[in-house]
Amino acid sequence: MSKKRDIRQIEAIAKEFEMDSDERHEFGDYIEDCKRRGETGAGTAGDFTYSELRVKVGEFRDEG
Amino acid sequence: METNLIDLRRAPKPSEGNLAGLSAFLAQLVGEPFRFARVSYGDELTLHFGDTRPARSPKLRHRLLYGAYILGLRSSPWVLKSGAEPVVLTTGVVLDPAGPAFGRPLTKEELEKGQFIEPEGRVVAATPFAVKPVEGFGLQLRTSDGSTLLVLPAIQEPDEPEDEGLPKLADWELSSPRGLLSAGPGLEWSFKPSANASIQASSIQDPPKT
Fold first, then answer.
1. Partner of A21 at 20 to 30 A CA spacing, among B74, B131, B178, B209?
2. Of the candidates B40, B163, B173, which has its C-beta nearest A29's C-beta?
């Protein structure tokens, strides 16, 4: 079963950063890609916390 | 033979239990070719259909493609009966709770590379249905290669303290050039037009019978 909290966190980030559905899909894929490349967050089982996801938005949008 | 017209420029009115309106929105997926499956963050299965485009993000632009239509299964249970191979995939669904466990776990990479739905297989039916015990909308999708996908609404559970303030999740959603269709939670659905889609937000009228 998929991890509902992770998806809900992506939804919350999308709302906060005013992402449309295309960008939200891409952001979710970007975070998944980070995980598959071995990056881990401070959350359960290496998941990213909400504050870590907020930081990731800047990285994803290539804002520095 | 009677011909029926579904006007996608006129947004069917979302309302509780409005299955006909939900069906009308799903009509746009029929005929679109399946492209690929991708597992996103949170282990969400996404199925991509229609023309493909490169990612908009500079981080993904040269690596990932996206279908014009993306069916997101969120955290809902699903069953896929492949038309390409004699296999059935399940997530969150136990086909025979009383029987012995069978099957084997599939990795995300296997799921993505498996081609359990034949690429280019066309959607021939996208049918929503109400699931009364959990009060939510399910979805059945059939493709021309003989595959059938069944998505069931997730059982709603109370939030844990860490989940407070997080948005509720739809049971499944369809992202399209016209906008985002979301089904659930509960027997409700909504449609958010995309910024560049010109959709009249008015209720659909039954086409005249001829």
1. B131
2. B40
Please report the ipTM that was assigned to this predicted complex.
0.92
Separation of alpha carbons B176 and B196, rounded Å: 12
| Phi/psi at A25 (5° precision) | -60, -45
The predicted-structure confidence for B16-73, as pLDDT tens digits, reads as follows 568 888 999 999 999 999 999 999 999 999 999 999 999 999 989 889 999 999 999 9
Q: Do B41 and A32 touch (CB under 8 A)?
A: yes
Residues of A in Cβ contact (< 8 Å) with B58: 62
pLDDT digits (tens, 9 = 90+) for B67-102: 999 999 999 999 999 998 999 999 988 777 666 677
Predicted TM-score (pTM) of this structure: 0.89
Look at residue B70 and give its three-state secondary structure: strand
- Interface membership of B195 toward A (CB under 8 Å): yes
